[in-house]
């Protein structure tokens, strides 16, 4: 019996399936849109002016980081608005502005323009966050784990496909049109796809929501006091930050680490690409199964197992000298990751009243954005001061610390149906 067949007994709202598939596809395209331009952003910037190597690296880093910095700053405001006006409106706002900013980025005359557009994109982002909160509020809690896993799978799949598609498009159009246009066309295509997401969300998604005036909405402090366990919510925020940080600490240096293992090897770029992509593949393959298991045994148990397995896997990663062994270990890490962030989001879903979903999930997104920035800085800094293996050691112990926090502050808390 499939999930959709089982869910019939839980009286899913009318139009739930249409909304779920629309939001899933929207999250997939959003994840793809964020990652599609990253493989060639530095090349695009270098074609926009006579920049030095230092300037190109600086502007590329800023273009990457600005999106997450803006998310961390602005997300709580959008979460407040989501609890007053509804999550669907926030999804429309995020997809609409993202369609516009990505398209305008394709018209960039210089590097500063790209950095500014990326900041604006981050400031108005939040599609995946609000789509997750929307479908969580419309789904019976007995199936929250599966739904959270599927929504994460959408973004993960998009992040996997994005760089491959972006690289292929920029190469194809670069050979066909020549010059910087090869880098501009993927922005226009992504902008058009995000416009389709905006239309789909507008016309195919229905949300059962009654707008609340600012005066009648409970203050965040009052909501936090009324939660079953404030410490548990805070620990989930920290978990989101640390897990995201552990992922991003490796991303900036994983290709260089793979290259250092094969100094005289051929097809270094291909091997590095495989090593970079395997965690996402592992998450994709395992997410549905782990989501079902989460609904059976509870998200906290799955989270604890995922953190321990993640910590253990980082030990051989730091010791290996074989890129293919590293790829296999990162594939297993992707499976463990399917039990980390979705589990944390499921705990938030099951321990938060629906009227405050927007704010709780927006704070969670802020912590996730902070984790992305901290992780990137940590990976680059540690590898610069020490070596690549040290990054894996530090990241592994970060997950161990996370496990201890969950064990201490979530002890005795049962899975809430």
Automatic annotation (TrEMBL):
Principal subcellular localization: membrane
Annotated Gene Ontology cellular component terms: plasma membrane
Gene3D superfamilies: MFS general substrate transporter like domains (1.20.1250.20)
Chain segments annotated as transmembrane: 20-44, 56-74, 94-116, 151-173, 185-205, 226-248, 268-290, 302-319, 331-351, 363-385, 391-413
Record membrane topology: Multi-pass membrane protein
GO molecular function: transmembrane transporter activity
UniProtKB keywords: Cell membrane, Membrane, Transmembrane, Transmembrane helix, Transport
Domain Major facilitator superfamily (MFS) profile per the UniProt entry, residue ranges: 19-414
Localization, UniProt: Cell membrane
InterPro entries, per the entry: MFS, MFS_4, MFS_dom, MFS_trans_sf
Pfam families the record matches: MFS_1, MFS_4
Protein name: MFS family major facilitator transporter
Organism: Lactobacillus kalixensis DSM 16043
């Amino acid at each position: 019996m499939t999930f959709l067949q089982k869910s019939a007994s839980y009286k899913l709202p009318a139009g739930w399936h249409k909304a779920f598939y629309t939001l899933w596809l929207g999250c997939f395209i959003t994840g793809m849109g964020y990652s599609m331009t990253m493989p060639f952003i530095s090349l695009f910037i270098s074609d926009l002016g006579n920049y030095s190597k230092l300037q190109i690296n600086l502007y590329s880093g800023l273009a990457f980081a600005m999106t997450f910095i803006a998310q961390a700053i602005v997300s709580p405001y959008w979460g407040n608005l989501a609890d007053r006006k509804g999550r669907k409106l926030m999804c429309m706002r995020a997809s609409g502005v993202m369609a516009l900013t990505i398209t305008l980025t394709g018209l960039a005359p210089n590097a500063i323009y790209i950095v500014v557009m990326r900041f604006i994109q981050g400031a108005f982002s939040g599609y995946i966050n609000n789509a997750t909160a929307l479908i969580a509020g419309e789904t019976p809690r007995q199936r929250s784990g599966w739904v959270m896993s599927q929504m994460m799978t959408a973004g993960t799949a998009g992040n996997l496909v994005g760089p491959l598609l972006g690289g292929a498009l920029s190469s194809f159009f670069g050979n066909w049109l020549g010059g910087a246009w090869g880098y501009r066309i993927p922005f226009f295509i992504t902008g058009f796809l995000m416009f389709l997401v905006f239309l789909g969300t507008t016309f195919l998604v229905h949300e059962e929501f009654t707008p609340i005036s600012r005066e009648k909405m409970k203050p965040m402090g009052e909501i936090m006091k009324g939660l079953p366990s404030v410490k548990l919510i805070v620990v989930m925020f920290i978990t989101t930050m640390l897990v995201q940080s552990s992922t991003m600490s490796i991303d900036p240096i994983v290709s260089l680490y793979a290259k250092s293992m094969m100094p005289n090897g051929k097809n270094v770029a291909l091997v590095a690409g495989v090593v970079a992509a395997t965690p996402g593949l592992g998450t994709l393959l395992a997410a549905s199964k782990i989501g079902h298991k989460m609904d059976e045994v509870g998200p906290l148990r799955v989270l604890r197992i995922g953190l321990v397995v993640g910590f253990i896997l980082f030990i051989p990663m730091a010791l290996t000298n074989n890129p293919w062994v590293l790829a296999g270990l990162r594939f297993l890490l992707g499976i463990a990751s399917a039990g980390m962030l979705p589990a944390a989001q499921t705990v938030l879903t099951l321990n938060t009243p629906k009227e405050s979903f927007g704010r709780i999930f927006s704070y969670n997104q802020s912590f996730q954005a902070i984790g992305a920035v901290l992780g990137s800085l940590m990976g680059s800094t540690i590898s610069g001061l020490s070596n690549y293996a040290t990054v894996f050691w530090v990241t592994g112990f970060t997950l161990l610390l996370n496990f201890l926090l969950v064990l201490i502050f979530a002890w005795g808390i049962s899975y809430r149906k």
